[in-house]
Design a protein that fits this description.
The protein is of the alpha+beta class and 66 residues long. Helix content is 18%, strand content 58%.
């Protein structure tokens, strides 16, 4: 049975929530192998002049240890 570790990361995007999740996984994948899942813990959007400018996420990324 593999051991799974969970880390918490903050990510953002000026496009969408989906893009922010993909950014989190892409950045974590640079130094972490065996990523299994992403749990979005919190979502927020920054607003300027009545328009959403960026989306921010706090994600928990799970990965298996070798």
């Amino acid at each position: 049975m593999p051991i799974v570790k969970v880390i918490e990361v903050i990510s953002s995007s000026d496009k969408s929530i989906d893009d922010a999740i993909r950014n989190a996984v892409a950045e974590a994948s640079k130094t972490i192998r065996n990523i299994d899942s992403v749990y979005v813990k919190d979502i927020k959007a920054h607003v300027k002049d009545g328009q959403v400018t960026t989306f921010g996420l706090i994600c928990k990324i799970s990965f298996r240890l070798d």
